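INFO  loader      accepted 1 record
INFO  loader      residues=118
INFO  predictor   begin
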Amino acid sequence: SPIFGSLSFIADANPQSQQQQNQLVQQQQLQAPRFTTHPSSSGSIVSEGSTKILQCHALGYPQPTYRWLKDGVPVGDFSSSQFYRFHSTRREDAGSYQCIARNDAGSIFSEKSDVVVA
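INFO  predictor   done
INFO  writer      dumping tokens
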């Protein structure tokens, strides 16, 4: 009888310890975003009516999502796209643009890129 009690205890404890190990592994794998590409910090002059693309790219786990800010105000929602496109650029598109990369481990802000419409 004591032997069966011990076996029963081990069988009950095993799934829980496996779950704890899985959680530990998941925590170790989380990596906060870090930028590999910033929007051009030198700024850019864009012709009115033309197309312009800003890009930022970050590594991290899980894969970061991106959101763009214009003059500190969010433009759109977080998405998997690392690009911000200007179609038929207008004068009101001019401003200071910045990218946020976010995942479960944290969020970071890119350098700012000043866009001038000429």
